[in-house]
Amino acid sequence: MPELPEVEFARRCWERWANGRRVTGVTATVSRVLRPATPRALQAVRGARFVQFERRGKNLLLTARSGHGKVGLWSHLGMTGKWVRRPVGELPRFARASFTLNDGQALHYCDMRLFGRLQVVPQARFAEVPELAALGPDPLVDGIDLRRLADRLGSLRLPIKVALLDQRLIAGVGNIQASEALHRAGIDPRRPARSLSRAEVARLAAGIRRSLAATLARFDRAVGPDGDIAYVEEPGTPNFFAVYDQAGARCPRCRKGVVTRLVQAGRSTFFCPRCQH
DNA sequence: ACCCGTGTTCGCTG
DNA sequence: TCAGCGAACACGGG
Questions:
Q1: What phi and psi, each to the nearest 5 degrees, are found at residue A160?
Q2: Which nucleotide has the least CA–C1' distance to A239?
Q3: Rounded CA gap, A4 and A125, in Å?
Q4: A4-133 — its CATH code?
Q5: What's the pTM value of the predicted model, to 2 decimals?
Q6: Strand B bases within 7 angstroms of protein beta carbons
Q7: Residue A12 C-beta-side C-alpha neighbours within 13 Å
Q8: Which nt is closest to the CA of A113, judged by C1'?
Q9: What is the topology classification, in CATH, of domain A146-271?
Q10: Which of A95, A104, A226, A260 has a CA between 20 and 30 Å from the CA of residue A199?
């Protein structure tokens, strides 16, 4: 589930759930989610109060403060990660790490496929983590610098859809948002990145911003302010995307083309051949 | 049984 | 040297 909108939604949930609360207990099971894989490292946040809730691309950056100073928690949801709040004593399925708070609730990191990551960052020095430093600008936090984006794209032979998945270019766009943004911009996903004109790059940036904002607004509406799960997708949830996973459907933009699926760099792409050029 | 999957990294190849 | 690709990771659902 997690691209930028899902992670931003998780960030807002965390803020609501944990702001000013103290961690009274930490438990975790050994798994590749933890870096290092030892549950012991997570004990650094025990006794600390969560005070800051940030996001960079698909990364959640939580800061807790204790008498000893700050501790950072770096969370990446991978493919199937989600944060869940439950009263103490209830353990949700696939819980890999749990933080008990001083309000009788516990926050659980659940991840079926274990592609996510949870790591303590000493002193909350997120900027010194190489993987985070390598991220490109976050469209919501930093905005998109058109000139810089055009320059970067200008040197890439890759299909534009594949280029958009590179987190060093723009942080937070994933497989769904890449298809959705290109559809909004009316750009064929197969075009070499370097072939985009200045005007098309501008349209693409607008498409990215609008697609992210529209998806985020859906979550707010669907889950509401008091939800206990920072999630998006549950079985039976209707697909509200314009093209993603809509192969065979009529294009909602031009109302004439048929949404088509193709595979690029091993990932599904969806687009309308009639209005994306 | 078989294929697919909202992410990232690693190793091979040309 | 490096862009580009497929595989791998792990597990459930259609």
A1: -60, -35
A2: B6
A3: 22
A4: 3.20.190.10
A5: 0.95
A6: 4-9
A7: 16
A8: C10
A9: Helicase, Ruva Protein; domain 3 (1.10.8)
A10: A260
